[in-house]
C-alpha cells in the first residue's frame, strides 16, 4: 500500500448534477451500497485504542448490514481516459457529510474536489456519508458506531467498487485510492492497521490528521455537544451519544481573510453528527510540530513500516478544513499528484 500522510496545516444538498470543466463534464449521481460488517467493538466506547488492545471479555460483537450513501462522479462518456479503472473513495471528517468534497460554488469559487480531480486527471470519485452520518444508516445505539464498524464499512465499500459494477455502464474498478479528511483519515488508518495486506485500498491520502499528535483530545473540542441538545427539532430522537460541533471556526485558519464568511454559514447550516495545513488550529497552530517537515515525516513514517511509499506534506496557509478555504487548490493539486502516482 502507498501512503500520503497529508499533514495539516438541517439541509442536505444531495442530488444528481453535472460539473463543467474545460476538458468536458463530470456527471454525479446519488448511490447507496449495502455492506455487511461483522466485527468486535469495545464494550466501552471511550476506549482510546478502539478495542485493539482489549481482551475478549472487554469486547462485544456487531454483526449487521448497513446502507452507505454516496455521490458518485465520473467523466462523461465522451472522455477517453487511461484512469477509468481508478476510483477515489472520499471520506469526510467529524460532523461533516459527503458534501464536504463538493460544497456549492460560492463567490465564483468552486470548492469541489470531485470536479477538480476530474478536470486534472479525469478521475472518478465516490464521496460517502460515513456510517451513522447523513443519509447512510444510523444505528439506534451510537455505541455501535465505533472505529471497527465504520472502518469495516468503508473497506466493504472499497471491495464493492472492485468487484461489482456501480451503475449500468460503469464496470468494477481495478484500483481504489482512499482519501480521508480528519476523522475520515482515522477510519482509513484504522482499517489499514486491522487488515494489513488484505486491505482493499491501493493507496491512502490522509489529510488533516497526524498520528503523532497525541495531545489532541477530540472530546474536549470547544462547542462539541450532544446533537439532540444542539438541535432538538432535527435530532431529538437520537441517542444522546451522537454529538455535533457547534463551533465551526476551529476548522478554519485563525486569519478570517483566508476564507469566505459565507462558507462558515453554510458549514453551520449543513453540520451533521458523528460518533495538515500550516494554519490548522487543531494540529499545527501553537505547536512546533509542523515547522520541521523532515522531522515530522520521520516520526509519522515510523508508524507505517510496510508502506511502499510515504510522504508528509504541510500545505502553507491551509486550515483544518483545507478544502473550504481560499488555498484549496494547493491541497487539490497534491491529492491529484499522489492519485496519479498510486495509479501507476
TrEMBL record:
It holds the Pfam family Abhydrolase_6. The keyword Signal applies. Keywords: Signal. InterPro entries: AB_hydrolase_1, AB_hydrolase_fold. Residues 89-325 form the AB hydrolase-1 domain. Coiled coil: none annotated. The keyword Signal applies. Residues 1-20 form the signal peptide. This is AB hydrolase-1 domain-containing protein. It comes from Mycena alexandri.
